[in-house]
Amino acid sequence: DAGVIQSPRHEVTEMGQEVTLRCKPISGHDYLFWYRQTMMRGLELLIYFNNNVPIDDSGMPEDRFSAKMPNASFSTLKIQPSEPRDSAVYFCASSLYRDSYNEQFFGPGTRLTVL
Amino acid sequence: LAKTTQPISMDSYEGQEVNITCSHNNIATNDYITWYQQFPSQGPRFIIQGYKTKVTNEVASLFIPADRKSSTLSLPRVSLSDTAVYYCLVGDSLAGNNRKLIWGLGTSLAVNP
């Protein structure tokens, strides 16, 4: 398996623009997680899905952020409108529930810069 | 709500054993405690996971006391390549079988020659 795939790897945009980050989880995994990482705030869990259903979205910063998982092999994280403080590395991860879904496999991340 | 606390940074030398402790109260009674390693410009990588007592794999050991209010990641004979940030991950209860995942803030380990 190719692992978790994220696109784009780098995104530079201007304040006010819409940004869409994409993720393809590992085939067969039933949990998908979106994270944000910055120097100031560290690693933050934004939202996670189980079988395409959002379970905990309490980490989503505000209404400008939305995440969807239309099927088991694809998820998006959208920011509209984007702001400079959204600049960060966004990671997607997936896992398979056995005894625990804490063994998460992370993608390479998308580095977002909002000017 | 569960909360985690781990040291911000640690220093060590090659060949030494390093122990990183994470304190976590009010975690879900049937959830695992997990540790991750992260190198610069990469996503975190799973190291080890346990429920109680001691777990060992080819990379590390994990010690969990009976009260499960803390866990200690032990890295034997560290090398320069172990320089990384180490995170603990625990779960708190949500409705049904789902968990609220609580990540530590990470411990930056620097291994010196």
Plain-language structure description:
- The complex is a heterodimer of chains A (115) and B (113).
- Chain A is built from no helices and 11 strands.
- In chain A, the strands form 2 sheets. In chain A, strands 2, 4, 5, 6, 9, 10 and 11 form a 7-stranded mixed beta sheet that branches. Chain A has a 4-stranded antiparallel beta sheet with strand order 1-3-8-7, with no helix packed on it.
- Chain A has strands spanning 5-7, 10-13, 19-24, 31-38, 42-50, 53-56, 65-71, 74-79, 88-95, 105-106, 110-114.
- With 115 residues, chain A is an all-beta fold.
- By secondary structure, chain B is mainly beta.
- Chain B is built from no helices and 11 strands.
- In chain B, strands 2, 4, 5, 9, 10 and 11 form a 6-stranded mixed beta sheet that branches. A 5-stranded antiparallel beta sheet of chain B has the order 1-3-8-7-6, with no helix packed on it.
- In chain B, strand 6 (53-56) and strand 7 (61-64) form a beta hairpin.
- The termini of chain B are far apart.
- The mean pLDDT of chain B is 90.
- The A-B interface holds A 33, 42-45, 48, 50, 55-56, 58, 91, 93, 99-100, 102-109 and B 31-32, 34, 36, 38, 41-46, 49, 87, 89, 91, 94, 98, 100-101, 103, 105-106.
**Average pLDDT rating of chain B:** 90
Quaternary: heterodimer
Beta-strand percent range of chain B? over 45%
How far the N terminus sits from the C terminus of chain A, by CA atoms, comes to 36 Å
Largest sheet of chain A: 7 strands, mixed
Largest interface: A-B, 22 and 22 residues
Number of helices of chain A: 0
Care to count the β-strands of chain B? 11
Note the run of SSEs of chain A as H and E. Answer: EEEEEEEEEEE
N-to-C series of helices and strands of chain B: EEEEEEEEEEE
> Which regions of chain B have little confidence, pLDDT < 50, spanning 5+ residues?
none
Rg from Cα of chain A:
13 Å
Overall 3D shape of chain A: globular
Structural class of chain B: mainly beta
Q: State the helicity of chain B in percent bands.
A: under 10%
Q: What class would the helix/strand composition of chain A place it in?
A: mainly beta
Count every beta strand of chain A, where a strand is a DSSP E run of 2 or more residues.
Answer: 11
Q: What portion of residues of chain A is helical?
A: under 10%
Low-confidence stretches of chain A: none
What's the alpha carbon Rg of chain B, rounded to whole Å?
A: 14 Å
What is the average per-residue confidence, as pLDDT of chain A, rounded to a whole number? 92
